[in-house]
Write a structure and sequence with these properties.
The chain has a single domain (2-16, 27-171, 207-233), classed as Vaccinia Virus protein VP39 (Rossmann fold), CATH 3.40.50. It is 39% helix and 19% strand. The chain has helices at 38-64, 81-90, 103-112, 148-157, 180-189, 192-199, 207-216, 236-246, and strands spanning 2-5, 11-12, 71-75, 95-100, 117-120, 133-139, 159-170, 219-220, 224-227. This is Putative methyltransferase.
């Protein structure tokens, strides 16, 4: 299950006072910056995008209400599935820019969609002027940012007045019927560190904390919706030889 900050209810407002902290702005000790090998990025595009991420991209773009002529930023774009989905919606006069911290992801993104623009950068320090975009999208990445509050504040900064921020994050771990048993098994065999690592993917699932984080960033008309999806995982045999060879 994912939680979607529905874009029609999450718009750029005049900057206001921001609280010093928000529950979901605190980084998990397991979410630090990392560089990926190219092979991992290629497998991400080949396997995980069709298995999981491709189904969410149209929902995110629909929530953002994208229209021809819009200028769109895809933050933490990975191999570019959201950017590729958004591009025809803003054509012919609009623009989509994908941004990611991992060069390997960007290499694959540029290979798959050479007609689109992809840049390397950090969500907490977006390399764009204030009020640059009509919409900012971020799919399944907020929980990985070292400083979520700074990242959302930056996304708000680059939005034009009336612009839309649409985020998609996993719902609470307890609402994941396919994943909760996996975490339980991991706790028995791999200990608390493994549980912490696996659970960190779901740290943004608290709706009230997520909405508060957005309000603190100067956004108005915030709305959180739940959407359901299915993860069609590759067979266990797909993981084994590739991952064992790397260790």
């Amino acid at each position: 299950m994912g939680q979607l900050t529905d874009a029609p209810g999450c718009r750029r407002a005049d900057p206001g006072a921001m609280s010093e902290s928000a529950q979901s702005s605190q980084a998990s000790p397991h979410t630090e910056a990392f560089d990926l090998p190219l092979e991992i990025a290629e497998n991400y595009e080949r396997v995980f995008v069709p298995a999981f991420f491709a189904q969410w991209a149209p929902m995110l773009c629909e929530a953002a209400g994208l229209s021809p002529g819009a200028r769109v930023l895809d933050v933490a774009c990975g191999t570019g599935i959201v950017a590729r989905t958004a591009s025809p919606l803003v054509a012919p006069s609009g623009q989509v820019i994908g941004l990611d911290a991992n060069e390997a992801m960007l290499t694959v993104a540029r290979r798959v969609a050479p007609e689109l623009e992809f840049q390397r950068g950090e969500a907490a320090a977006l390399p764009f002027p204030d009020r640059s975009f009509d919409a900012v999208l971020c799919q399944m990445a907020l929980m990985f940012f070292a400083d979520r509050r700074a990242a959302v504040t930056e996304m708000s900064r680059v939005l034009r007045p009336g612009g839309v921020l649409a985020l998609l994050v996993p719902g609470p771990l307890d609402d994941q019927p396919g994943f909760t048993p996996f975490v339980t098994v991991a706790s028995r065999h791999a200990g608390p560190d493994a549980v912490g690592l696996l659970s960190s993917y779901f740290v943004c699932g608290d709706e009230a904390a997520l909405a508060g984080l957005l309000v603190d960033a100067g956004l108005a008309d915030v709305r959180v919706e739940q959407r359901h999806g299915i993860y069609q995982a590759p067979s266990a045999g797909w993981y084994g030889p590739r991952w064992r060879a790397r260790h």
